[in-house]
Amino acid sequence: MKKFDEWNNLKKDTHKKERNILPKIREIWWCSVGVNIGVEEDGKNKHFERPVLVLKVFSRKSFLGIPLTSAGKSESKFYFKIIYNNKEYFVILSQVRLFSTKRLLRKITRIDTDTFSNIKSASAKLFGL
Predict the structure, then answer these.
(1) Is 13 exposed, middle or buried (0-12, 13-18, 19+ CB in 10 A)?
(2) What's the rounded Cα separation, in Å, for the pair 120 and 116?
(3) Predicted pLDDT at 34
(4) Could you list the residue range(s) of the whole structural domain that residue 117 is in?
(5) Is the pLDDT reported for residue 38 higher than 80?
(6) CB count in 10 Å sphere of residue 114
(7) What's the total number of domains in the chain?
(8) Does pLDDT of 17 surpass 90?
(9) Helix (H, G, I), strand (E, B), or coil: what is residue 111?
(10) Which class for 62: exposed (0-12), middle (13-18), buried (19 or more C-beta within 10 A)?
């Protein structure tokens, strides 16, 4: 059973917070993505968090991000494999979305420019851009 009520309480607290974080493109952050509907990627643990790659920064308040998972499918066009901390992760290309910077918890790493360029190309190809 999904923990919608628990997430709703945390979401209210997160909304009230004043944050002054300016993420940078190529950074991966732990982000409170919450409990979502259907096949949308959920967060885990008490903060309903998941690693998210910063794709584009719009302001101190919002950015375009893509959630990551460790349970991807490397043969799928919807996933792009990356490696950090000697572990394999997958950027879930089909789950790109706008995030509030209030959801950011802590920075994990920053990926190299070549990998980031390949992710952007794979995203553009997936969406026909």
Answers:
(1) exposed
(2) 6
(3) 84
(4) 4-127
(5) no
(6) 8
(7) 1
(8) no
(9) coil
(10) middle
Say which CATH number the domain at 29 has: 2.30.30.110
Neighbours of 31 (CB within 10 A): 29
Compute the average pLDDT of residues 105-124.
95
What pLDDT, on a 0 to 100 scale, did the predictor assign at position 98?
A: 97
For residue 112, the surrounding DSSP H or E stretch is none
Cα–Cα distances (Å) from 11 to 5, 15, 52, in that order, read 10, 6, 17
Beta bridge partners of 91: 68, 80
Looking from the CA of 59 toward its CB, the CA atoms found within 13 Å total 5
Q: State yes or no: pLDDT of 99 exceeds 90.
A: yes
Pairing outcome for strands 27-32 and 104-110: antiparallel
- Beta bridge partners of residue 57, listed in sequence order: 63
Cα(55)–Cα(96) distance, integer angstroms: 9
pLDDT at 43: 84
Does 1 score more than 90 pLDDT?
no
Residue 15 has pLDDT above 80, yes or no: yes
